[in-house]
């Protein structure tokens, strides 16, 4: 078991990180037609160069688990892949459950397995805030030792060096005025971004890639996101439709090194939603987007395998 979060410091009060030592047995998932169309699990190894990365974090590995949507047929394969990958940190990037989820039975065994492999942090997606069992999900996170970040950050320490992980709530929390899940200093319309620490490498966890760009412009070195489902149907390596980006979206899968070229490919409405100017500020940073593991509402994935990115930070 990795120990990448040992000795971490939470910026806001919270319960201490706990480790499970034995992974629960996963139930046998039924493979339906749409799961077969989607294909087998795609474990993608991604190298992410980080400016000023401390040498102690060179080679640090982060696994991205996103868009589970209450369960997926490849859960056992995903756990086995994570065990082989041996990440230092697992990040759950939202939409763990569906808006209509009535029970955690389909997802709880998978969640319980994650902290047995590596320390695990999570953020919420839009579906969590539309679901009536959100408190039960929070209890499950705490029970199995997953750190939930809601406009909060935590400091990872390794060999005397540090790296900060910031988790932003999905904007749906504010649209739905979920008073019970907002920090006391939250505004009525926007997540509260913890103050930037100059000179420290910072990784952002956020559900929507379009929103991620907005915060990358503030100086984060790396952002991890999901939500786009890979564009649902992929033709010649490009998605057809993604929520928040429309048809032929730009940000759907893998690593994007943020620059003016990426910005130029964004649609005007996406740039507006991201609050971006016509020129990128020139900060050396990157975005990794997971295509997700599960399906929601429109379940047919064509040429779009469930996606498990494994990111290695490099100097």
Explain this structure.
This protein has a single domain (9-15, 36-314), classed as Purple Acid Phosphatase, chain A, domain 2 (4-Layer Sandwich), CATH 3.60.21. It is 20% helix and 23% strand. The chain contains 8 helices and 17 strands. The strands form 4 sheets. It has a 7-stranded mixed β-sheet with strand order 1-7-8-9-10-16-15, with helices on one face. A 6-stranded mixed β-sheet has the order 2-17-3-4-5-6. The protein is globular and about 45 Å long.
Helicity level, as a percent range?
10-25%
**Main beta sheet strand tally, sense and closure:** 7 strands, mixed
Task: State the secondary-structure class.
Answer: alpha/beta
Unreliable spans are 1-25, 27-37, 275-283
Strand residues, percent? 15-25%
Total number of helices: 8
Order of SSEs, N→C? EHEEHEHEHEEEHEHEEEEEEHHEE
| Total domain units | 1
The CATH class designation is Alpha Beta
* Radius of gyration, CA atoms, in whole angstroms: 18 Å
CATH fold group: Purple Acid Phosphatase, chain A, domain 2
- Give the distance, in angstroms, between the N- and C-terminal Cα atoms: 24 Å
Per CATH, the architecture is 4-Layer Sandwich
Overall shape: it is: globular
Task: Please give the number of β-strands.
Answer: 17
What number is the mean pLDDT? 78
